[in-house]
Amino acid sequence: MCPNGYSRTGMYRVLFDLILSRLDPERAHHLAFLVIRALPALGLGGLARRYTAPDPSLAVEALGLRFASPFGVAAGFDKDGEAVLGLGALGFGHVEVGTVTARPQPGNEKPRLFRLIPDGAVINRMGFNNNGAGCAANQLLRVRRARRRPVLGVNIGKSRVVAVEDATADYLTSARALAPVADYLVVNVSSPNTPGLRGLQELELLAPLLTAVKEVAGDTPLLVKIAPDLTDDQVERIARLTVELGLAGIIATNTTIAREGLRTDPAVVEAAGAGGLSGTPLAARSLEVLRLIRAVVPPELCVISVGGVDTAEDVQERLDAGATLVQGYTAFLYRGPLWARQINRGLLRLRSALVEA
Ligand SMILES: Cc1cc2nc3c(=O)[nH]c(=O)nc-3n(C[C@H](O)[C@H](O)[C@H](O)COP(=O)(O)O)c2cc1C
To answer: I need a labelling partner for 104 at 20 to 30 A (CA). Which of 4, 200, 260, 265 fits?
Structure first.
């Protein structure tokens, strides 16, 4: 148990405390990413899958698709769709690839990822580093040929060099390339690291953007991902707009620009600088936003809850609050490769305890 009560257990804790936490966070992520990406090529995908496969009772039907588990990987972990099969083999029911932009871009200068260990949180200002929509489309075509794979979401955003006024054309380039290879498509208007992006959440900009992307997406279900820093009123209005436009769902939430209530030394937080905060401190607002959305949308609308989820209890709480599916990212960095397995097993345990009670 850490001094603040944030706990990690087992072998991974030892590995994290002794080695990973001393590495630059982006380098540690890169190393873990390489191993996960290599699982299928090393012939370990099947082995991992046998050990981690979600129990069939956890399967969820949503967006016209079958998710082997309600729990998936949030956008940002696999920017270019290179580790989808490895992540599926670890027990995630879906992987949201991206954010992909129409043009390849390097992202912000390093360092751009910072751990707030006492909070189980990170601050990032990656800035949509990715190889571009064309490259991702080729990569995902290969993923789709796999016999067993998780559900594949693709999250698209605005290229940095494109002015906000020209955002729609830029999103459409990505949508044309990626909707045909995605099981679902997400319009990301909520990352804090691309100047002007979050301004696209204003209804008079959002409505035409979503209308245009929906037309290009065709039969591919379209969702919109929103920020936790919107006012409650804005959240409700976007939720209503989503229904009016006939979108398939909403993803809530992205990272926050807020820094309140942190346990980490303020000097460490200050030194990290600008960027989006994710992990445990985001949990309360993310749950609140989920409840606001659920109160104004019909039950059939897919709502994916993300932000600060750490344990199976957290995932079950989101499902009980009306989430159709749940995603996570930051706790993966702290909990390690067996995180999805732990969540899936925990969900099963919680449900059997409920039946027995
Ligand atoms: C390093 C990092 C990079 C991220 N990149 C993206 C991104 O490219 N697109 C996006 O929509 N969200 C991105 N996110 C946000 C996550 O998808 C998620 O919404 C947020 O981190 C809250 O979930 P968590 O608390 O489980 O991490 C990123 C998060 C982190 C930590």
So the answer is: 200
